[in-house]
Amino acid sequence: MSYLLGVALFALAILISVSLHEAGHMLTAKAFGMKVTRYFVGFGPTLWSFKRGETEYGVKGIPLGGFCKIVGMTPQDDDVEPGDEKRVMWRYPVWKRTIVMSAGSITHFALALVTLWILAVSAGLPNPKFPSTDEQLRAEPAVIALAPCVVVESANRLCQAGDPASPAATAQLKDGDRITAVNGRSVSSWGDMLDVVRATKPGQATVDYVRDGTPATATVDLAAVQRPPMGDPKGATSAVSALGVQLQFSTPARVQYSPGAAFGATADFTGNMAVQTLHAMQRIPQKVPALWTAVTGGERDVDTPISVVGASRLGGEAVENNAWLVFFMLFVSLNFFIGVFNLLPLLPLDGGHIAIAWFERVRSWLYARIGRADPGRVDYLKLMPLTYAVILIGGAFTLLTVTADVVNPITLFSR
């Protein structure tokens, strides 16, 4: 039940975000005097609506997004009533049209930033100094946290009934102990400890450690497990030894900030997220084969894109496991991605309309400088084949990601 509640909550959060996106367009358009005739949440048949002034507001039957109708977005629009000619959008200065068209993405960015600031003050943001690469992890001190069990066949699942107890726990080692040697072989880091333990035969071994500054030695019965090579989780497994411990990090995973310091932390985190988002978007074409593999029965690559369906399922998992920080970070990431994606200079995205507006402005300026007549507005009808191509490709990609998220979803927690 909690999983379904989480899915519903995340889907509702997305719907609210998209509705606020359209509200951003509407409010800025109205502020500049443009005519807005409709603002609806959802698509399909109208469930409920009312009219205030010149705008009809309402809710439609399919809760997948929303829309607002600004009269005269292009010179080719034919729904301009007599007397409204001066209020059509395309007649307004390019800077005003840019604000209106970018207001949707700005709304997504604002939602992400406000959520991040609240998280920074309350739960904390990911620590930028927290180890994130294999090299950094291996360099950490060999300070242990006891694992609840030993997973014999695969390390990529949680403990289940019948899994053997942690050898370290059985030998009375404790969280916070720092391993210094195994069978007399010196250990100086977490990576050293992994290498030494794996190279030691299963069975009894002596483990030297330091607890609260006091050296001690324990006899541990190392477990025999199957593991892939270090640094290659998809490699062929082989028999190695395991101590039944996890790394206890020397730095906290999250940092909580004061209200003032949270602004700087939010800005830094947003900058890193922007870089990661751009890199992720660049990799999208490369991930199409992996998505197809996931749809046709292969293993799902966790680095493949997800749809709104996949994001909602992850939100459900987060709520089911009481991981609300994960839930809100998913909300932040999705809003930031939608904001960036919507600014791409492609029709029918908002970024396409912005790009055309500035192209017209620059072209008019250049023609004026060389003494030629203004060529006027871009004919959107001539761009329709390109627009349809973008819609077709985007629709096919969306269908592929939704299918993958239904038949072979990415999971954050074992269920």
TrEMBL record:
GO MF term list: peptidase activity
Transmembrane segments: 99-120, 386-407
Main location class: membrane
Names of the cofactor(s): Zn(2+)
Recorded topology in the membrane: Multi-pass membrane protein
Cited Gene3D superfamilies: 2.30.42.10
Entries under SUPFAM superfamilies matching the protein: PDZ domain-like
Family designation: Belongs to the peptidase M50B family.
Protein name: Site-2 protease family protein
Organism the protein comes from: Micromonospora fulviviridis
